[in-house]
Amino acid sequence: MTKQTMHFHYEPMALARQLVTLHFETKLKAFDTSLLSHGNYEIDYETPVFIREAVYKTLENMSDEQLEEFMSQVAREHNIKGDFFFDRYLPQIFDKIVKSEYFKDILEECHQKHPVFDSYVKDLTSGIIYKANYSCHYETIIAILSQHPELDTPEKQDNFVMTKLKLIGESYNQDWYKPKYFVVSKEDNSKLYQYDVQAAFNRVYTDALIANKTEKPEMSWNIVIDDYENNKLINKIIKDKSKMLLIKEFRYPINNYVISTPAGLIDSSESITDAAIRELYEEVGYTKEQVTIESVLQPSYSSVGLSDEQTASVFVTVDDSIKPKQHLEASEDITYFWIDAHQAEYFLENGYLSDDLMRHLELEPQEKIGVTARTQFTLKHFAETLPSKEFRSLIDSI
User: Fold this and answer.
1) CA 190, 194, 196: angle at the middle one, nearest 5?
2) What φ, ψ does residue 168 adopt, rounded to 5°?
3) How much of the chain exceeds pLDDT 70, in percent?
4) Which of 327, 381, 314, 365 is nearest to 85 (CA)?
5) pLDDT confidence tier of residue 105, bands split at 50, 70 and 90
6) CB burial class (10 A; 0-12, 13-18, 19+) of residue 286?
7) What is the sign of the dihedral through the CA atoms of 239, 243, 248 and 251?
8) Among 104, 184, 193, 398, which is least packed by CB within 10 angstroms?
9) Average pLDDT score, the chain
10) What is the pLDDT of residues 380-394, one digit of tens each?
11) What is the pTM of this model?
12) Cβ(271)–Cβ(312) under 8 Å?
């Protein structure tokens, strides 16, 4: 068979723009709180329309020079001297974009187009939008006038209200405005309520980042079986045991990180299972009530050629409905994470995890990382729960 090579050209800036947009839509779910919210991180509000519109408008309208500058800032911060593979730094590039003055201007522009208040008064001289509580525009108007000392006669104030203020909402009629008295200028603006556009965006952006990093609850399948012979229903909950808990830990003897399972020394007064539960609580945070012991491998020699050290293994399942909180010592540097059997297989074949998981662990994509021997063996056993590669290839081809 003749081997053919295809070549194609692409515009780097156009591709970068598309990839940043794809990051926004996939990892941050385009700030759609109905997609971001999940059992371990609930979001109880809807994202204002103007925020999503501002992001899309910025990504679409910014110049190639602006995008290149954002990418250059990321490259400089990561001390990248050679080729800059921008697809590895999409979160950082996006962060630079939405923290720029360019984006902030568009954010305010979109808020002017889609204000969140149902009833408000807009000062056309400043562009500021003030909330009118319960459609009581009059109180808001009086408060605005008190901020304009240059309006020093009733006539000037009347003209300002009729030509420089815009009233929006129910139960208003701009023509009825007739002040009962001359409004005295004052610095107190306690009756003026503005929408904090930047704070709103920061809240949505932060929630999107946390929701993306917070692991969703493991799936449970509710199986309802009809038993017609006995005329009854059998209702069973089958828990998903398709994920494995691992940790990334800094080990001083090798001066580097390794992948392993939670582990530690057994105190003189402890049993094997008590020590396992304690270490799991300290290094990850799951409490004794969340842990179910499945099986125990009795102590065996771990390095008989060098020492008489023995290790024991305890296999458990955990209730992940309550998120754990680590209880680490000052000298410990541990990050826990979950993987499925496909990711275990990928790690064993490559020596590193998927790019997304490596970034989550604050490691460079495709950077080799060590693994303890016992963990490596357990990962192999876990990966073997998958159907054979031949079977998977057959299914993919159908």
Assistant:
1) 125
2) -130, 140
3) 82
4) 365
5) very high
6) buried
7) positive
8) 398
9) 82
10) 988 887 776 665 565
11) 0.50
12) no
Structure tokens at 188: 């107190």
Determine which of 150-159, 210-219, 285-294 has the lowest per-residue pLDDT on average: 210-219
Closest to 92 in 3D by CA, of 106, 71, 107? 71
Angle value at C-alpha 79, between 73 and 85, nearest 5 degrees:
70
